[in-house]
Specification:
- By secondary structure, the protein is of the alpha/beta class.
- The chain folds into 2 domains: 3-21 and 287-376, Aspartate Aminotransferase, domain 1; 34-282, 3-Layer(aba) Sandwich (Aspartate Aminotransferase, domain 2).
- It has helices at residues 3-9, 31-47, 51-69, 82-92, 111-118, 139-145, 168-177, 197-200, 226-229, 269-285, 287-307, 332-341, 363-374; strands at residues 19-20, 76-79, 101-105, 125-129, 150-156, 181-185, 204-208, 220-224, 324-328, 344-345, 347-349, 352-356.
- The chain has a 7-stranded mixed sheet with strand order 2-8-7-6-5-3-4, with helices on both faces.
- Helix 3 packs parallel to helix 10 (269-285).
- The longest helix is centred in the last third of the chain and has 21 residues, at 287-307.
- The protein is globular.
- The relative contact order is 0.17.
- It binds pyridoxal-5'-phosphate.
- The site of pyridoxal-5'-phosphate (PLP) has 13 residues, from helix 4 and helix 5.
């Protein structure tokens, strides 16, 4: 580990006592983020209310997300959660005509399917894209589901259950051929994987700041391609979704000309302090360097896990995975508890123990994981 990453690791005090491998659940609290949260308290105590400063914080988060995703600030809505962003988008989609189909992969986080199923009452028809024989979701299955009736395709970047990465550019190419829109859920990759929404060609991207972005819960983002904004008018909204927040007009809804139209009420102020600092940490190191570091440490982990006889649900191929390495278990919940007893913090979904790495992890965390698994071999599948 280079001196640079040692210094980065030192910003996260929890790593002094834990092998923390749950960043895809909640990223660790870094010293600059802790300082930002304290700053919020100092500002509150000193100023009481500071609406100008608070909206500036939300705007700083907007600008930071835009820079990270290679988008414009006018293309970013600052929301209270990923779910809030998808809901606002769904409310703006018209399902009354023949193009009423929403295609969702079976790798979606529940929110990303449930919200589209909720639109069935508004005329939407939801079709799922199933896994193939190797457990991935192949492009041929998207090809079968996406057709001239498809309005929107929801695709996850890295699956929260097994760490598999989908071919987003491939899905976009199929969707384009059929005139369908694409929403990327990048919650399990943003901050850990370099994402260029323009290069990928997605129309929308959604996520939040509590995982690899090292911020806090209760704040998220929705990217909306500038070319799509005018045609989409959400039917959920509020005063922070208006063209002029201070217009205070109770006689009309006047949506912002930017992606801010997908916002609702008062921004999540305290969370914005944390999110600004977390995004700052990622941008300072550079997401490409963070991605390379994570690829190196997860690669090492996968090789050592395979040597130790573990069965993995995540493919070894670097192109088909992100920051998560999922380990098959006979009782994933029990194994996660046993690891925690040894100071190794992971998480579980499906039959897998999920180990989710950030650039602050190092070989000592991998070693602690291998040792803790070896002591609980009977729970490995
Ligand atoms: C991939 C993915 N999408 C969506 C969500 C839901 O996000 P939120 O709780 O902000 O709505 C999560 C939460 O873990 C997630 O991992």
């Amino acid at each position: 580990m280079s001196a640079d990453w040692t210094a980065f690791r030192a910003l996260f005090p929890t790593l002094g006592t834990k092998a923390y491998l749950a960043s895809g659940s909640y990223g660790l609290l870094g010293a600059p983020v802790e300082a930002a949260i304290r700053q919020y308290m100092d500002d509150r105590l000193e100023k009481g209310a500071d609406w100008g400063g608070w909206t500036a914080k939300a705007d700083a988060v907007r600008d930071g997300m835009a820079a990270l995703l290679n988008a414009g600030s006018d293309e970013i809505a600052v929301t209270a959660s990923a779910s809030a962003g998808i809901n606002a988008l769904a409310s703006a989609v018209d399902f009354s005509g023949p193009r009423n189909k929403v295609v969702v992969s079976n790798f979606e986080f529940p929110t990303g399917a449930q919200i589209w199923h909720a639109q069935e009452r508004r005329g939407a028809v939801v079709e799922h894209v199933p896994e193939g024989p190797d457990g991935g979701v192949p492009l041929e299955h998207f090809e079968r589901a996406i057709d001239e009736r498809t309005r929107l395709v929801q695709v996850t970047h890295v699956c929260y259950r097994n760490g598999q990465r989908l071919d987003v550019a491939g899905v976009v190419e199929i969707a384009r051929r059929h005139g369908a829109l694409v929403l990327l859920d990048c919650f399990q990759s943003v901050g850990a994987v370099d994402i260029d929404v323009k290069a990928l060609g997605v129309d929308f991207a959604v996520g939040g700041m509590l995982k690899y972005l090292l911020g806090a819960a209760g704040i998220g983002f929705l990217y909306v391609d500038r070319a799509r904004i005018a045609e989409l008018v959400p039917t959920v909204g509020g005063w922070f979704a208006q063209a002029d927040t201070n217009a205070m007009d109770i006689f009309a809804n006047d949506p912002a000309p930017s992606a801010a139209r997908f916002q609702a009420g008062t921004p999540p102020v305290m969370n914005a302090y944390a999110a600004e600092a977390g995004i700052g940490l990622i941008r300072e190191r550079g997401v490409a360097a963070i991605e390379a570091r994570i690829r190196e440490i997860t690669g090492e982990a996968m090789d050592r896990l395979a040597e130790a006889g573990c069965r993995l649900a995540t493919p070894r191929d670097d192109a088909r995975r992100g920051p998560q390495v999922a380990i098959r278990a006979t009782d994933a919940a029990a194994l996660t508890d046993r690891l925690a007893e040894r100071g190794v913090i992971a998480s579980w979904r499906d039959g897998n123990v999920r180990t989710m790495f950030h650039a602050y992890n190092d070989a000592s965390d991998v070693g602690a994981l291998i040792e803790a698994l070896a002591a609980n071999r009977e729970l490995l599948a």
